């Protein structure tokens, strides 16, 4: 066997090993199926990048907290936000807030899942959003100000972006003092961890 052929085979073998390792790691990431009245959204979570945030989100999922909540804030070409209110616009009681992990290197890109919060960087609890645009202004820049802290990305949609985009285009208005509320209720029927 020539040295050139040997090196080519070695490179191919190493590439295959790396590919398998990446696939195995991705297969180990938790996945959550979010069933809505518009269709299903499957998300993959990244506990290695955002361990506290993923643990927090899965706590709500496993407690069936999200069942019957709604996407209460929808802004076209920006994001869809849910996980805090029922269909009557009643705010659901939550656990203590989770520490902001926006400095994990993940970015607010189309299809990524991130935590919603107030002006306090460490105020995220149950509410999350799915980016429908490249929202780099939400990424972590520094820890000196609330806005610069960013919004923690902790997962991504791996199936169902068509549903996310459909939700992002619903007609919205004002309801109970809140803006950008879908005129027709977009309900999370249930959210379940599937692996």
From TrEMBL:
<keyword id="KW-0697">Rotamase</keyword>
<dbReference type="InterPro" id="IPR044665">
    <property type="entry name" value="E_coli_cyclophilin_A-like"/>
</dbReference>
<dbReference type="InterPro" id="IPR002130">
    <property type="entry name" value="Cyclophilin-type_PPIase_dom"/>
</dbReference>
<comment type="similarity">
    <text>Belongs to the cyclophilin-type PPIase family.</text>
</comment>
<dbReference type="InterPro" id="IPR029000">
    <property type="entry name" value="Cyclophilin-like_dom_sf"/>
</dbReference>
<feature type="signal peptide">
    <location>
        <begin position="1"/>
        <end position="26"/>
    </location>
</feature>
<dbReference type="InterPro" id="IPR024936">
    <property type="entry name" value="Cyclophilin-type_PPIase"/>
</dbReference>
<keyword id="KW-0732">Signal</keyword>
<feature type="domain" description="PPIase cyclophilin-type">
    <location>
        <begin position="35"/>
        <end position="193"/>
    </location>
</feature>
<dbReference type="InterPro" id="IPR020892">
    <property type="entry name" value="Cyclophilin-type_PPIase_CS"/>
</dbReference>
<protein>
    <recommendedName>
        <fullName>Peptidyl-prolyl cis-trans isomerase</fullName>
        <ecNumber>5.2.1.8</ecNumber>
    </recommendedName>
</protein>
<comment type="function">
    <text>PPIases accelerate the folding of proteins. It catalyzes the cis-trans isomerization of proline imidic peptide bonds in oligopeptides.</text>
</comment>
<dbReference type="GO" id="GO:0006457">
    <property type="term" value="P:protein folding"/>
</dbReference>
<dbReference type="Pfam" id="PF00160">
    <property type="entry name" value="Pro_isomerase"/>
</dbReference>
<keyword id="KW-0413">Isomerase</keyword>
<dbReference type="GO" id="GO:0003755">
    <property type="term" value="F:peptidyl-prolyl cis-trans isomerase activity"/>
</dbReference>
